[in-house]
Automatic annotation (TrEMBL):
Entry GO terms, CC: cytoplasm
Annotated keywords: Aminoacyl-tRNA synthetase, ATP-binding, Cytoplasm, Ligase, Nucleotide-binding, Protein biosynthesis
Swiss-Prot/TrEMBL GO biological process terms: arginyl-tRNA aminoacylation; post-embryonic development; reproductive structure development
Ranges of biased composition (kind: Polar residues): 1-19
Organism lineage string: Eukaryota, Viridiplantae, Chlorophyta, core chlorophytes, Trebouxiophyceae
EC numbers: 6.1.1.19
Record-annotated DALR anticodon binding domain positions: 491-607
Descriptive protein name: arginine--tRNA ligase
One example GO MF annotation: arginine-tRNA ligase activity
Catalytic activity: tRNA(Arg) + L-arginine + ATP = L-arginyl-tRNA(Arg) + AMP + diphosphate
Gene3D superfamilies xrefs: Arginyl tRNA synthetase N-terminal domain, HUPs, Isoleucyl-tRNA Synthetase, Domain 1
Family, as annotated: Belongs to the class-I aminoacyl-tRNA synthetase family.
Length: 607
């Protein structure tokens, strides 16, 4: 476990040393036992949730009402929901997580209080053994996550940025839970755009495709190349025809064409990789071309099995309930986006042994994936039971403050992503520099570089992640860089402030302190903070179950809020409870850092 004075160590992947599941899971196990004992025939799944009225209890079990409804009228059935609740309470095994007697409220809610000692001990253990010991377990292990996936030679747009940010956070969170995650970049490197591009190069470059080998410099500015060839493609019918021929030659394995293709991909790859490196994103490229050899055999097999059929010269899979079939081969014999996705689905299940496959793209692609998933089931690639679990993680559009598609200062139809990162970082550097000057402190350029990178990139990521991904959101530098509210900047400062408190106390190694001192929260705000810290595993579970990163950002923002309420009312340094309160500060900082790590944000230790 790291200590707030030092940068944190990496995220552990081993959950075998788990020291806590979650309060909710612990309570669910207890209520499950009680339900089984009190109503053995009901086969009831425990419904346990945190209460929204802490006055009456911390968590509640809500089974009594529905259970009563189902038993009503049967012989020996309890006479009202309260009687059901009473029977559940009577059968509840004793445990040290619940303190006092459970109480009943309303028609039959069972309220319980969580033991302060239980939480204190778990927090202390977490400090000693590290937050990874609180990672929830998952009912699956091998996960394929398909994200980012820009198209070669086309603009990597804000939608791809969203996919990259959301996909990375989901991958990090699944990895934290111990999943074996394969992060795949399904790059569009095999489309018809290549015919157009290569034909354009062939016709405009001195010597055409022959002569000197094509260098990466020849395709240096892919945007320019793409735009120029697109204009010709749209305006010149004869060129269009030649471009089509070029695609066929490429797909037929023409060596000159392939050489040009691979140069273009290389140039594109360099650009993408530069962005991933800046953002600290790990992803493995496995573009559409990877699946090319698998396409024809797959289509043949699906035809043979009768899963696919001919329709107006094309080959399609009809799926009940869908107005349009999935086209797996065009009438001109070509394969497309859908064929590749069918082949990829099979490869990921059969060869990668995926238990869960997640696709992160804009919401507009949902109909495509819905159809692919159903066709996969019809083809027997996905089992009848629905295994593996397939998820499309969709997201809305990014808008400028004017409510329209965003533009940068340099204009253009969509933004160059590096410009976004640069501007965010630049603005942060300015703010930090001013702050230092105001405080009369020395300006350390290396430190400003590191801090402004962490803040600027963190701000861009966080602004995206904090929204319910299904909604469109407005991209605003002023908002995302604000010191107030739910922003990365605010949270990074909050973390740095806690680090400063711990430094000021000057008690040496906090880890050593955790081994000797206890957490003894008494003040209501201390208790609320500790309870929230203990809820971290629940936030993680929710995030990976719903695939909603905003569950995690909401949790983190609440954590910071609970810390502030505590700090306003409870003196830490120099108080009688200093040791206990320092441990609470450190636990807050450790969990904050764990959240930052899952969100791909680098923490700051100094304002
Ligand atoms: N390249 C596609 C696009 O830019 C996204 C690919 C998503 N992944 C997939 N397996 N289809 O829209």
């Amino acid at each position: 476990a790291g200590q707030t004075q030092q940068p944190p160590t990496g995220v552990a992947r081993n959950t075998s040393t788990r020291t806590m599941t979650s309060i909710k899971q612990e309570l669910s196990a207890l209520f499950k036992a009680a339900l089984q004992q009190a109503f053995p025939d009901a086969n009831e799944v425990p419904l346990v949730e945190p209460t929204n009225q802490p006055k009456f209890g911390d968590y509640q079990c809500n089974n009594a009402m529905s259970l009563f409804g189902r038993m009503k009228g049967k012989e020996g059935a309890p006479k009202n929901p309260r009687a059901v609740a009473e029977a559940i309470v009577a059968a509840l095994p004793s445990s040290d997580i619940i303190t006092g007697k459970p109480t009943l409220a309303g028609p039959g809610f069972i309220n319980v209080r969580i033991s302060t000692e239980w939480m204190s001990e778990h927090v202390r253990t977490m400090l000693i053994k590290g937050p990874q010991t609180w990672a929830p377990t998952l009912p699956y292990s091998r996960v394929v996550i398909d994200f980012s996936s820009p198209n070669v030679a086309k603009e990597m747009h804000v939608g791809h940025l969203r996919s990259t940010i959301i996909g990375d956070t989901l991958a990090r969170t699944l990895e934290f839970c111990g999943a074996d995650v394969l992060r795949l970049n399904h790059v569009g490197d095999w489309g018809t755009q290549f015919g157009m591009l290569i034909q354009h190069i062939a016709e405009t470059r001195p010597g055409g495709l022959g002569g000197d080998e094509i260098t990466t410099e020849d395709v240096g500015d892919l945007q320019v190349l793409y735009k120029a060839s697109k204009v010709r493609f749209d305006e010149d019918e004869a060129f269009k025809q030649r471009a089509r021929e070029a695609v066929k030659a490429l797909q037929g394995g023409d060596p000159q064409m392939l050489a040009a293709w691979s140069r273009i991909c290389e140039a594109s790859r360099r650009e993408f990789q530069a962005l991933y490196d800046r953002m600290g994103i790990r992803i493995q490229e496995r573009g559409e071309s990877f699946y090319n050899p698998l396409l024809k055999p797959l289509v043949d097999e699906l035809m043979e099995k009768g899963v696919a059929e001919e329709s107006e010269g094309a080959k399609v899979i009809h799926v009940e309930g869908f107005p349009n079939p999935l086209m797996i081969q065009k009438s001109d014999g070509g394969f497309g986006y859908a064929t590749t996705d069918m082949a990829a689905l099979r490869q990921r299940i059969h060869e990668e042994k995926a238990d869960r496959i997640i696709y992160v793209t804009d919401a507009g692609q949902w109909p495509h994936f819905d159809l692919v998933f159903h066709a996969g089931r019809k083809a027997g690639i996905v089992s009848e039971s629905g295994a593996p679990q397939l998820d499309h993680v969709g997201f809305g559009v990014v808008l400028g403050m004017d409510g329209k598609r965003i533009k940068t200062r340099s204009g253009g139809p969509s933004v160059r992503l590096v410009e976004l990162l640069d501007e965010a970082k630049g603005r942060c550097a300015e703010t930090i520099r001013e702050r230092r000057k105001e405080a009369g402190e020395e300006v350390d350029e290396a430190e400003i570089e590191a801090s402004s990178t962490a803040m600027g990139y963190g701000a861009v990521k966080y602004a995206d992640l904090k929204n319910n991904r299904n909604t469109n959101y407005k991209f605003s530098f002023d908002e995302m860089l604000s010191l107030q509210g739910n922003t990365a900047v605010y949270l990074l400062y909050a973390h740095a402030r806690i680090a400063a408190i711990i430094r000021k106390a000057n008690r040496g190694d906090i880890l050593e302190l955790a081994k000797t001192a206890k957490l003894e929260p008494q003040h209501e705000k201390e208790l609320a903070l500790m309870m929230h810290i203990c809820r971290f595993p629940e936030a993680v579970t929710q995030t990976v179950t719903e695939l909603m990163p905003n569950r995690l950002t909401d949790y983190l923002y609440d954590l910071s809020d609970k810390f502030n309420s505590f700090y306003v009312e409870c003196k830490v340094v120099g108080s009688e409870q200093e040791a206990s309160r320092l441990l609470l500060c450190e636990a807050t900082a450790v969990i904050m850092r764990q959240c930052f790590s899952l969100l791909g944000i680098t923490p700051l230790y100094r304002i």
